[in-house]
Amino acid sequence: MVSRVIPVDPFDLVIFGGTGDLARRKILPGLFRRYCAGQIEGDVRITGAARTEMDSEGYREMVAEAIAEADPQAARQSEHLAAFLDMLGYVVVDATGEAGWAELARLSRPDRIRAYYFSVAPSLFGPLAERLHQHGLTDGAARIVVEKPFGRDLASAQELNAVLAKHFHENQIYRIDHYLGKETVQNLMAIRFGNMLFEPLWNSQYVDHIQITVAEVVGVGTRGDYYDRAGAMRDMMQNHLMQLLCLIAMEPPAKFNPDAVRDEKLKVIRALDPVGPDDVVRGQYQGARNRPGYRNQVGNRDSTTESFVALRARISNWRWAGTPFYLRTGKRLKERASEIAVVFKDAPHSIFGEEAGRHRNILTIKLQPNEGIELGVTIKEPGPGGMRLIDVPLDMTFAEALGPEEADFPDAYERLIMDVIRGNQTLFMRGDEVEEAWAWTDAVIAGWEARGDDPLPYDTGSSGPDDALMLMHRDGRRWREIKA
Ligand code: NAP
After folding, report:
1. What is the pLDDT of residues 70-105, one digit of tens each?
2. What's the gap in Å between 255 CA and the centre of ligand 1?
3. Is the dihedral of CA 382, 384, 385, 389 positive or negative?
4. What integer is the mean pLDDT of 228-234?
5. CA–CA separation, 70 vs 150, rounded Å?
6. Structural fold of domain 11-147
7. 479: number of Cβ within 10 Å
8. Which sequence spans correspond to the domains of the chain?
9. Which residue among 240, 349, 359, 473 is the active-site one?
10. Is the peptide bond before 10 cis (omega within 30 degrees of 0)?
């Protein structure tokens, strides 16, 4: 099986923040891999833009180093690398001043797809949109890509949306949530809506509950300043976990087109019940041998910001009434593992008697580290020992099912940037979706702020605070083990 790579039309891309961490680690190496794959060809121009004084030659050197660091194997393709670097240029630009704008306007080719990637702090989104407008660069051929965090609450997200809407139509704005660019996340839609097998069972009559886990091993690292103002709820739950929840729970859209999909996701968020005090557990990691605890790492001894949050969500609609969704995410947990588990109900009657035990089908969608899908089915234990039942996985780890080459998926950023050029917004968040997700998040945060309770401590390398386990135990359920 050989997958077809269809080249995108030639384009001009300006990366504001082209010298920053995200550009160096993800955007530019990702573009290079798409070039090597043959998806980028022809007269393409990629321009880095930031305040640091540098010429285009210096920028090309910086990018070559960044690619070598991010993807040493790809960087060895020296022929490709030289040709890719030829597409690059650099302009010294200040988002808040006049420097560089005339040059950017001069370089702009009106007959081109033009993408402007805002890989800068959100406080610069407004000034960038304003300057692009002043220099006549916001016409229909232009599109902008904005990074997370998209606001820190409903009010700031509304403000950002309003700032962007002054100069761009919604169909020109690509709000990135890189989780949506993951192969498995899109596969979730293929599995649900491309097979007859699952959709008839995809409701509260057959599904006992759903668990979504995004567990990290790392702590806050160098992002302490930002993280301490955000916390797990704002940094992960409001966007990544909420998006996964929407894709799992939404109704089948009539068509696989951006607004049809996003309309259905929006309905899920709107149908979420308020989360009560007993539905949320927050935690903060403690130090371990040679590893500082959260408060030390962020340099704030009194911090009450959570590095872990687990909650029980309910969706009040016909499909899901009665099926809880348990969501958890945190740092410094035992393994790096992200998955969605759809846990089906017990068979209504066991013909095998008590001793056969209780068995359930679980569909697990693994997002990292090894993307794939696994269906737990119950079979007879082999051998002459009578009718004893065991659970075995029908494993569809993509690398095994498709072969390693086919399973060498583009990174989420690669896919999303190509979607920007193709003008496909399906995997990007619409403004109303983001606002609705913030409205729900704000209410959860207001709930714990009103109670004034601190996050519970948990050990580095654990599964989070014990109370998070109790959140499910009280319902007679248990979390799946966090396992890569
Ligand atoms: P960063 O390393 O601090 O880079 C910021 C970039 O913005 C630099 O290139 C900087 O270059 C440029 N810049 C700052 N002020 C400017 C101005 N007035 N005019 C023009 N350029 C200016 O930040 P980052 O980690 O790359 O993050 C960029 C954005 O992506 C942020 O919104 C962040 O939240 C988001 N994000 C990052 C990651 C990640 O893994 N890094 C992940 C998800 C989201 P000069 O100083 O040379 O101007």
Report:
1. 988 877 878 899 999 999 999 999 999 999 999 999
2. 36
3. positive
4. 97
5. 26
6. Rossmann fold (3.40.50)
7. 18
8. 11-147, 180-409+430-473
9. 240
10. no
- Partnered with residue 175 across adjacent β-strands are 146, 429
Note the pLDDT tens digit of each residue in 413-427: 999 999 999 999 999
- Among candidate residues 309, 306, 311, the one with its CA nearest the CA of residue 279: 311
Residue whose CA lies nearest to ligand 1 atom number 21? 50
17 lines ligand 1 (CB under 6 A): yes
To the query of whether residue 209 is one of the catalytic residues in this protein, the response is no
pLDDT at 221 exceeding the cut of 70: yes
Candidate of 94, 104, 119 to mutate for ligand 1, largest count of ligand atoms within 8 Å of Cβ: 119
**For residue 306, which amino acid is it?**
E
How much is the pLDDT for 3? 61
In whole angstroms, what is the distance from residue 430 CA to residue 150 CA?
Answer: 11
* 52/234 Cα distance (integer angstroms): 31
Q: Quote the ligand 1 centre to 120 CA distance (angstroms).
A: 4
Span 421-474, pLDDT tens digits: 999 999 999 999 999 999 999 999 999 999 998 999 999 999 999 999 999 999
CATH superfamily, domain 180-409+430-473, is: Dihydrodipicolinate Reductase; domain 2 (3.30.360.10)
Q: Report which ligand 1 atom has the smallest distance to the Cα of 23.
A: 26
One-character DSSP codes across 77-123: -HHHHHHHHHTEEEEE--TTSSTTHHHHHHH--TTSEEEEEE-S-GG
What six digits make up the tokens of 106? 């001069």
Kindly state the tokens that stand for 178. 């890189």
* 396 has a pLDDT exceeding 80: no
Q: Which 3 state secondary structure label does DSSP give 364?
A: strand
C-alpha span between 363 and 379 (Å, rounded): 16
Q: Specify which residues 114 forms β-bridges with.
A: 12, 142
Peptide bond into 404 cis (omega under 30): no
CA atoms within 13 A on the CB side of 86: 11
